[in-house]
Design goal:
Amidase signature (AS) enzymes, 13 strands, 38% helix, Amidase_dom, AS_sf, Amidase
Length: 445
């Protein structure tokens, strides 16, 4: 089993491991496995080698939280010399000279940026493919790695890199993390401050994908520029845990996806926490508000793009989004009503546990060739539990709990009130201690 990110960084800080040798091993794994896996859109082998050598020579190496750790970033942020493409051939071309602030923070922490990972066009879908490849689940390659941070999840789940960056506007970190057996964190609104904080009307934020809670916490602390978030402390006092497998609109959830919630709840009850089988009042307006933002959010990203080159499904999606914007149907008051109900719920509970996803994962295929409707139906069935917490701006994360009959991992989602990222991380660490999980897919590394 490959070392964790925290183990690698500790060895580099102590002078026991060479970042260049670590990167050489990483590039070898990518070269041998990613042809089938499809996790990377581009690998920065030469540039990364220079970065690894620079980390080795840094005089402050002993203070770097991610010293020499190979990290993949999602294809939505600028990396020196490469503009983000958002999974599209329609994105404006050109060369950027500056890193995105997220990439700059990773580099400052000693991370080595190995490459950029595959996403669906404009990050709209929970399946990550483009004309050049399909991001496959490393646990069962017949299934998708998820989306829109699917390439990042595939790379970490296969053990190609120990950490990857993602973004989450409706579940795009948590869904692929759950499918690939990983820890994925969506911090609360404003925790990671950066220029594009208004992306998808404030719902989207950056987050880590990792194989352990400690690794995810360290990366979150770097992304947020908050060293305190790297400290993992299990709860010392009993928490009020709510558990619910009822999604908005009451759609059915398969028993295999409900059972891990019961398992997590039993473990936490045995650990001294109180349980309440209840869930928040989602209401009818919450799904409507989420749908409006799902359609309209990508419209802003695609401003100035060559729309004639966009995929057919994307053109239809953006047309609906523009119509909603013209009609004034993206309204802050609908988000605020849901936020108020969520805050009311968390007056009586500390953490909510739900399934991370609600239906069998889609197969791995070239979804970009299919119609909008054929993409939308599996997407909407799959992802009802994650989006409400983007709309509310609450922190949420997923941790592995089980696998399906077909070997695909199943995660549970943990949600808390704003400002409680540390509490979520601590509770996730308790589940990791009690339940444990294999960190990468069987037979990949």
């Amino acid at each position: 089993m490959n070392p964790t990110a925290t183990e690698l960084a500790a060895r580099v800080r102590a002078g026991e491991s060479d970042p260049v040798r670590i990167l050489e091993d990483t590039l070898a794994r990518i070269g041998s496995a990613d042809g089938e896996l499809g996790s990377f859109r581009a690998v920065r082998a030469e540039s990364a080698m220079s970065e690894a050598a620079a980390v080795r020579d840094r005089t402050d190496r002993g203070d770097l939280p991610l010293a020499g750790v190979p990290v993949a970033v999602k294809d939505v942020v600028a990396v020196d010399g490469r503009t983000p493409l958002w999974g599209s051939d329609a994105a404006p071309s050109g060369v950027v000279t500056d890193d995105h602030v997220i990439v700059a923070r990773l580099r400052a922490a000693g991370a080595v940026i190995v490459g950029v990972t595959r996403v669906p066009e404009l990050c709209i879908w929970p399946m990550s493919d483009d004309p050049d490849g399909v991001a496959r689940n490393p646990w069962n390659a017949a299934y998708t790695a998820g989306g829109s941070s699917g390439g990042s999840a595939a790379a970490v789940g296969a053990g190609l890199v120990p950490l990857a960056h993602g973004t989450d506007g409706l579940g795009s970190v948590r869904l692929p993390a759950a499918l690939c057996g990983l820890v994925g964190i969506k911090p609360g609104a404003g925790v990671i401050a950066e220029e594009e904080a208004s992306s998808w009307f404030g719902m989207s934020t950056h987050g880590p994908l990792a194989t352990t809670v400690a690794d995810a916490a360290v990366m979150l602390s770097v992304l947020a520029d908050r060293p305190d978030l790297a400290e993992v402390h299990e709860p010392v006092s009993p928490l009020r845990i709510a558990m619910s497998t009822r999604p908005p609109l009451g759609m059915p959830v398969a028993r295999a996806l409900r059972a891990p919630v019961d398992s997590a709840a039993r473990l936490l009850a045995d650990d001294g926490h109180s349980l309440d089988r209840t869930g928040p009042r989602y209401g009818l307006t919450t799904p409507c508000a989420l749908l409006a933002r799902w359609f309209a959010g990508p419209v802003r990203t695609a401003t100035g793009w060559d729309h004639a080159v966009l995929q057919r499904r994307t053109r239809r999606h953006l047309a609906a989004g523009r119509a909603l914007l013209r009609a004034g149907l993206v309204r802050e008051r609908t988000a605020q009503r849901w936020r108020d109900r969520a805050l009311e719920f968390f007056e009586h509970h500390d953490v909510l546990i739900t399934p991370t996803y609600a239906a069998s994962p889609p197969r791995a295929r070239q979804w970009h060739r299919a119609s909008w409707l054929r993409n939308a139906l599996p997407a909407l069935r799959f992802a009802p539990f994650t989006g409400p917490w983007n709309l509310a701006g609450f922190p949420a994360m997923t941790v592995p709990m089980a696998t399906t009959r077909r070997g695909v991992p199943v995660g549970v989602q943990l949600v808390a009130r704003p400002g409680d990222e540390a509490r979520l991380i601590g509770l996730a660490a308790a589940l990791e201690r009690m339940n444990g999980w294999r960190r990468t897919a069987v037979g990949v590394t």
